[in-house]
Amino acid sequence: MSLRRNLRIASAAGLLAAVSTSAALVLSGPAHATPDRPVPAAAEEKAAVAPFIYGEDISNHEPDHDWSASPAQFGIVKATEGLTFRDGTFARNWRQIGEKGIVRGAYHFAHPSNDPIAEAKHFLSVVNAQPGKQGDLLVLDLEATDGMSVAHVNKWAKTWLAYVKAKTGATPLIYSGWNFADTYGRGLAEYPLWVAHYSKAKGTVTPPADWKSWAIHQYTEDPIDENVSALSVDQLRALGRPAAKA
User: Fold this and answer.
1) Are 238 and 216 in contact (CB under 8 A)?
2) Does the model's pTM come out above 0.70?
3) 21, 32, 81, 110, 151 from 26: Cα distances, Å
């Protein structure tokens, strides 16, 4: 979900509404947030004293990623986008992260011009088709407006998140760029924040909008999307799917 690549499709936002859903998903490419302006110095947050844990996130744009050689303690991969797109590398990544034994997560790239429940059902159908386990993270990648208003995007996200939480028992995370989250994320602080901000050293970003803290900071896309979490491995897993009922 690297930030800069999405600039290449930002100018096509107006076209997305005029083409079919399938075509729009092909045009949209990977899930990335838009670059963020510097946060004012007065809003800087001091780095946490506790050590961060390291994680990586990838999609079909890194088809040969070797999880067995990765030092990551958590891995989050793209599963779906919009109403129909399925990431072709999801099943392999999901399996390999599970075999590695680290915290595992799946994300959905949102298109607020579509019905949020339909997109949530699409995401869950793809994720549920793979073997799951307690602690698997579920993530909404919120960084596109599809030309919709702030109020519409905000309500759309609330609907998607509430549906996924009700159906799975997991509290979904929200991934977004700092500026996007600050504009569109008001009232969503009950959901843990995965914030992208490349101009801040890892772990030194301040939470935007109503959030009092962040769960994950994506601090670079070079050579791949890299992240740190202020939470422990156990705390991250606690945000994921609960244990199956007997």
Assistant:
1) no
2) yes
3) 9, 14, 10, 14, 26
